[in-house]
Specification:
169 residues, alpha+beta, Glutaredoxin, seven-stranded mixed beta sheet, two-stranded antiparallel ribbon, 6 helices, 9 strands, 30% helix, 30% strand, globular
């Protein structure tokens, strides 16, 4: 399982891009994790699924609300990662008004999530393999802080906790 001091697993995440430019076409685009994190501080939070109650009502809105404070604390980007496809993540991002604040990164086949060891089996609830709820700060691809929630909880992966950790670094 991923822990503080580890490098993020190699691989790609997908993002639905709304506006063509900067080498990206409209629609789903794949991004190399190592390239995106090189030389940057990234605040990452992951959750079980787009449009789910806690994720939509609490988790994403907290990061959208505090996006400027994260930037002031030296965080270059915020990423929301979920085991959903890029189309779903794009639609959810539009609903949550994340543009310019939080990148909605899709891990549709759960390759990144499996590589981190932070999986959650929700097959009994009809959702299949998903991500645990967590947040972390990553500098130049290396995990600096990691806040993993107990099953069914939302206590340590929230925006306020990660922001306090970013301000302390």
């Amino acid at each position: 399982m991923l822990k503080v001091g580890d490098k993020l697993p190699a691989g790609q995440l997908q993002e639905f891009v709304e506006v063509e430019g900067n080498g990206c076409s409209i629609g789903p685009n794949s991004f190399d994790i190592a390239a995106l994190t090189a030389g940057k501080t990234i605040g990452i939070f992951a959750l079980p699924g787009a449009f789910t109650p806690t994720c939509s009502a609490k988790h994403v809105p907290g990061f959208v609300e505090h996006a400027q404070a994260f930037q002031a604390a030296g965080v270059d980007e915020l990423w929301c990662i979920s085991v959903n496809d890029a189309f779903v993540m794009g639609a959810w991002g539009r609903e949550q008004k994340t543009a310019g604040k939080v990148r909605m990164m899709a891990d549709g086949s759960a390759h990144f999530t499996q590589a981190t060891g932070l999986t959650l089996d929700l097959a009994a609830r009809g959702m299949g393999l998903r991500s645990q709820r967590y947040s972390m700060l990553v500098k130049d691809g290396v995990v600096q802080t990691l806040n993993i929630e107990a099953p069914g909880k939302f206590e340590v992966s929230d925006a306020a906790t990660l922001l306090a950790q970013a301000q302390a670094l």
